[in-house]
Design brief:
alpha+beta; 49% helix; two-stranded antiparallel sheet; globular; 230 residues; two-stranded antiparallel ribbon
């Protein structure tokens, strides 16, 4: 079950006030093998991120995530990036009919948020997470070309985060598996198998992460779309 409620937000970039939705209650019943939670009801994926309809500033406003709308004022350089590179794109969406509170291209919301995160100097891991969520949106809308593009962008940032040892020790096992699965889903089977083979070492003998080792073996030999399903 997902319980959304209307909220009012003020954009810290242009100070426009606008309406959106916030998730109060949500539940899941498993996940896909690229670690996307399966929502019991409306998917919170579309309600935890918000875009200013005037300038395009985009970010999370949800418990458990960094609140991008609690800031009163943005750095001038960041505001300039948004106004030059995102605001012109928002005009294309403003003329498209849409449901109340629903952005017409949710994958672009996550892409805009990824750009902003990059301009702010956020972690490579967090930028990759945003691109992965954009890919999930494209999977829902049955747009395989865009889905592949965003999965490749997620891979780019996750692999750089690994290379630069940015990942926390507790995250290395999960992201090693995830990198393998993303390679598999874009058709790069050789690279996928290399990363799947690294999962056992990456989990460092932690019995709580044995499921990742088992999942990596499964996805290498007999891949599935969902965890725990035939």
């Amino acid at each position: 079950m997902t319980l959304p409620i209307p909220i009012s937000l003020t954009c810290p970039c242009c100070h426009t006030k606008f309406e959106s939705l916030e998730v109060m209650i949500s539940s899941t019943y498993g996940s896909s093998t690229d670690l996307r939670p399966i929502a019991g009801g409306s998917d919170p994926l579309y309600m935890i991120i918000h875009t200013c309809p005037s300038c395009g500033y985009t970010g999370y406003h949800y418990t458990g995530y960094h609140d991008a709308f609690e800031r009163k004022r943005l750095d001038p350089a960041l505001r300039e990036h948004i106004r030059e590179q995102i605001t012109p794109l928002i005009k294309d969406f403003s003329v498209t009919p849409k449901l109340p509170y629903k952005f017409v291209a949710p994958e672009r919301q996550y892409e805009f948020a990824a750009w902003i995160a990059q301009w702010k100097g956020d972690s490579l891991q967090s930028i990759g997470d945003l691109y992965l969520r954009a890919a999930w949106c494209c999977n829902d809308s049955k747009d395989p070309r865009k889905e592949r593009f965003y999965r490749l962008k997620a891979l780019e940032y996750f692999e750089r985060a690994m290379e630069l040892k940015e990942m926390s020790v507790s995250d290395i096992g999960g992201y090693t598996y995830l990198i393998g699965e993303l390679h598999r889903r874009v058709g790069e089977i050789g690279a996928a198998n290399v990363w799947f083979d690294r999962v056992a070492e990456a989990t460092n003998g932690d019995p709580k992460q044995q499921w990742l080792i088992d999942l990596a073996i499964q996805q290498k030999i007999h891949p599935k779309q969902f965890i725990g399903r035939d």
